[in-house]
Amino acid sequence: MMFYTGNMFPEEYRNVIFSAQHGSWNRTEPVGARVMVTTFDDEGNPTTKPFAEGWLNEDGEYLGRPVDIAQLRDGSILVSDDLAGALYRISYKEPASE
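Now predict its structure.
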């Protein structure tokens, strides 16, 4: 898990916790293989929801297994994947207004 201190992402993702879910190994229906974001309300109660998914297909096969998360200086985040042997950079760019 990583405490996000950057400002690249929209306000709702600032000062939150990003965590990698490697995925289950002993469940009939696999779960995990995603990046989660945990926010806290004013009383300190946590809420966790998916931030990045897609490493677990509809057949329950793992396409990747996120392991760790790190923040770069520009505010983007890196996600390591030990199944695919990959490192993903997730960034955000404000949509152009019309």
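Residues 2-90 form one domain.
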